[in-house]
């Protein structure tokens, strides 16, 4: 189930990035031919979010292994840290209500969610 939730968090992050694209605003024209291109922009944002998350995890594991090689000696230690980082990233699910209930403070909410996830990740690393 952790893998499924991880994918769902990546989808939330990709949707947020896609929403913030300058050219992703909806057109009132019903013959909008750019929808297909917008869909591919979403897939591109999903790929970027996936690569960033993988780079983040690899960076954390590498930094911890280089800084304290005795802390992450066994495979179980790596698995526990990976689970802690995945669980601490579930705060990204708060993006769903923020996007659904879009209001004047949406951008502030999105920034607060990012701070919350970053704080959760730093606590998970501890």
TrEMBL record:
Protein source organism: Gekko japonicus (Schlegel's Japanese gecko)
User: Which compartment or compartments is the protein found in?
Assistant: Endoplasmic reticulum membrane
Protein name stated in the entry = Protein ARV
| Keyword annotations from UniProtKB, A to Z | Endoplasmic reticulum, Lipid metabolism, Lipid transport, Membrane, Transmembrane, Transmembrane helix, Transport
Name any one Pfam family assigned in the record.
Answer: Arv1
Entry coiled-coil feature ranges:
none
UniProt topology in membrane: Multi-pass membrane protein
Keyword S-adenosyl-L-methionine (UniProt): no
């Amino acid at each position: 189930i952790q893998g499924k939730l991880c994918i769902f968090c990546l989808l939330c992050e990709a949707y947020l990035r896609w929403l913030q694209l300058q050219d992703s605003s909806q057109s009132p024209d019903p013959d909008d031919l750019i929808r297909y291109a917008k869909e591919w922009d979403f897939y591109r944002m999903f790929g970027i979010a996936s690569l960033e998350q993988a780079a983040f995890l690899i960076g954390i594991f590498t930094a911890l292994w280089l800084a304290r090689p005795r802390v992450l000696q066994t495979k179980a230690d790596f698995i526990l840290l990976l689970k802690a980082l995945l669980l601490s990233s579930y705060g990204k699910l708060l993006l769903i209500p923020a996007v659904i209930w879009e209001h004047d403070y949406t951008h502030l909410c999105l920034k607060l969610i990012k701070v919350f996830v970053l704080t959760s990740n730093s606590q998970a690393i501890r």
